[in-house]
Design a protein that fits this description.
648 residues, mainly alpha, two-stranded antiparallel sheet, globular
Length: 648
């Protein structure tokens, strides 16, 4: 045959004929499906697609898969859909592989299967499908968070990067957010900003919102100030495109920076409870966003109203609505209102039996609200729960598990061992100097400049983080004999603040410390000595000696006092001294040592109550201070005022 003589390959001739036939049938089927030159005839289209699909035509298999997926012209059948899509995928159709991956990922008409989803997404992603690369990245992120497998965390970033390079707008957005969350300074943020811009140019309003947030960031160490006007511009575009959170953020800008007068939006005044309120841009945007369903906006609008008038029913309704929408801060503040009301019930001992059942129901409701708030980031909720348990216990009318209180406070206390506690303010010397100026001063032998330069390299402040250079400059100033520098370096190497923790180097620095005159640095160094003796060297007698030294210079070092109190509590003859030291720390305010002292005190109370010992100390010494510190809130407006303050 002539073709064979030309090509020398009958198989190639047959292949070309087959491809031409499949293409012809596919086009014919498309005509029947969409009515191109003929009347729409879905059964005829399916029948014609099947002819081409039997010969392995990938697009025809894809079409049949989608017909069975949607149940269009056939009985919906997810298994047949996957079969046809699989055949198309096997012939190299990336879209078919992506679709099967998505079906298993989302559990569409079939049980979810992450392994199968990953398999099919990968086949599609490897063929360059940007949607598959993005979805696969998100699947890997989900698996890594669920299983803590580092390999999946790596895969997540690799696939996300590929999707970014493919121009996927959601990938650009997510990678930008990932970079911002790394919090590594403006150089990284510039790249994030570029990604947000690329995503926004493709119509992603979330990216516009992120661009607005980027301009609200400032870097004091780099002398980079936030740009409110640029932030407002991007947020306003996002708001106009329907982004509700952007409108809330505009409300924040107008509320926090009223003097800028950058928003000219006019809002009608409203009348609440017979009183007319002037609605400025801040409250106006909150109210608009609240109408669109934003629980955050409801919360903020509500507390602004309640700050004006704590009995305002509309403000309370907004707060309740935000709480019902599971906004943690709203649940917390609503619980504080209930606790204020509860306190009066607790004080009415004579009539307690009349409302005991109601009281118990109220307590359970408040517990649920505070537990939710605590689980969703409101740290003080644990403290309020501890207060509630303590006050219920003190009534003597309700059965309370006393041991629950220390466990609640434990989650509230930030650092019970006080490893990172110091009373030396952070070194602010030469903050206004550039890196070049610092290097020049450091090379000339300026010990303060050497220390500051080491800190900048350790923390990546105005320079790229460089541990080796940080160590170099720290080593240059170790021999300075400067009490402040040595005190700070002892802390830095003890806790690993910007460098690797090194207990031996810390001890070496402390060994070289000498102060000609008594100073605050002496107390902090003695605290560090005592801490190392207690927790590292296991020499408690030395620890007591150093802690006592830190507390005897006319200034009570709260960290040392707390550690000393803990050690005194273990001995009978010093037990009351330990209790009184804890009380003395608490009376100075709830700082880190104050938090720790409160927890230690309630632990002692519980241990004594459980063992039936030291009843006199419990009731006459410990209980009064606990009653004072763990008292329930009394004035709701004070709580609203604090909520307003927290917004700032």
């Amino acid at each position: 045959m002539i073709y064979g003589k030309i090509t020398g390959d009958d198989a190639a001739h047959n292949m070309i004929k087959n491809e031409q036939f499949m293409k012809q049938k596919y086009q014919e089927a498309v005509s029947y499906e969409y009515g191109v030159g003929v009347e729409i005839n879905i059964p005829k289209a399916i029948q014609t697609y099947e002819v081409a699909a039997l010969r392995g035509h990938p697009q025809s298999n894809l079409k049949l898969g989608m017909f069975y997926y949607h149940g269009h012209g056939v009985t919906q059948d997810i298994n047949k859909a996957i079969k046809y899509l699989g055949k198309a995928g096997g012939s190299g159709c990336a879209l078919s592989c992506f679709t099967i991956g998505w079906i298993y990922d989302e559990g569409i008409l079939i049980s979810k299967d992450e392994d199968k989803a990953e398999y099919w997404y990968t086949k599609s992603a490897e063929n360059g499908n940007g949607n598959a690369q993005y979805n696969l990245s998100q699947l890997c992120l989900k698996i890594s968070e669920k299983t803590a497998k580092k390999s999946y965390e790596k895969k997540y970033l690799e696939w996300l990067e590929l999707a970014v390079n493919n121009g996927h707008p959601l990938a650009q957005l997510k990678m930008g957010i990932h970079l911002v969350n790394r919090n590594e300074g403006p150089e990284i943020d510039v790249h994030a900003n570029q990604l947000f811009t690329l995503s926004a140019e493709q119509g992603n309003i979330d990216a516009l919102y992120q661009l607005g947030l980027m301009h609200l960031r400032s870097y004091k160490e780099y002398n980079i100030e936030r740009d409110i006007n640029m932030a407002f511009g991007f947020l306003n575009k996002a708001k106009d495109a329907g982004h509700i959170q952007a409108q809330v953020k505009i409300g924040d800008i107008c509320y926090f920076y009223p003097g800028l007068n950058i928003d000219k939006t006019q809002f009608k005044n409203i009348s609440v409870g017979g009183r007319e309120y002037e609605v400025g841009p801040d409250w106006g945007h909150y109210l608009e966003a609240a109408k669109k369903g934003s629980v955050e906006a409801k919360y903020k609008a509500g507390i602004i109203l309640l700050y004006e008038d704590e009995s305002c029913s509309d403000g309370l309704d907004m707060l309740v609505s935000a709480a019902h929408g599971d906004y943690p801060a709203a649940k917390y503040l609503l619980s504080m209102k209930e606790l204020c009301a509860l306190r009066s019930f607790l004080n009415d001992h004579e009539g307690f039996d009349l409302y005991k059942e109601r009281f118990i129901n109220d307590v359970e409701y408040i517990k649920d609200q505070l537990e939710y708030a605590s689980e969703h980031g409101v740290k003080k909720a644990k403290l309020q729960l501890a207060k509630l348990h303590w006050n219920c216990y003190r009534t003597g009318e309700i059965e309370i598990n006393l041991c629950k209180i220390p466990s609640l406070l434990y989650f509230w206390v930030s650092d019970y061992n006080l490893l990172k506690y110091t009373e030396i303010p952070y070194c602010t010397h030469l903050d206004d100097r550039s890196v070049d100026e610092l290097i020049s001063l450091a090379k000339s032998g300026d010990n303060k400049a050497q220390f500051v330069l080491g800190t900048r390299y350790a923390k990546g402040l105005t320079v790229s983080q460089d541990l080796e250079k940080a160590e170099f400059w720290y080593n240059q100033c170790i021999g300075s004999g400067d009490p402040e520098i040595l005190c700070r370096l002892a802390y830095i190497y003890h806790v690993g603040d910007g460098v690797n923790a090194d207990i031996n180097k810390c001890k070496e620095i402390i060994g070289s410390y000498f102060s000609q005159f008594p100073s605050v640095y002496d107390d902090d160094v003695n605290y560090r000595r005592g801490y190392i003796a207690l927790h590292h060297d296991k020499t408690p007698d030395d620890a007591i000696k150093f802690f006592e030294l830190a507390c005897c210079n006319g200034h009570l070092h709260l960290g040392a006092a707390f550690k000393l109190a803990q050690m005194y509590l273990k001995t009978e003859d010093k037990y009351e001294d330990g209790i009184n030291m804890l009380i003395s720390i608490i009376e100075r305010g709830i700082s880190n040592p104050g938090e720790c002292s409160l927890l230690a005190l309630i632990n002692e109370y519980c241990d004594n109550a459980r063992s039936g010992t030291r009843e006199d100390i419990n009731e006459n010494v410990i209980a009064p201070i606990l009653d004072d510190v763990l008292c329930l809130p009394t004035i709701f407006k004070d709580e609203v005022r604090e909520a307003i303050y927290m917004l700032h």
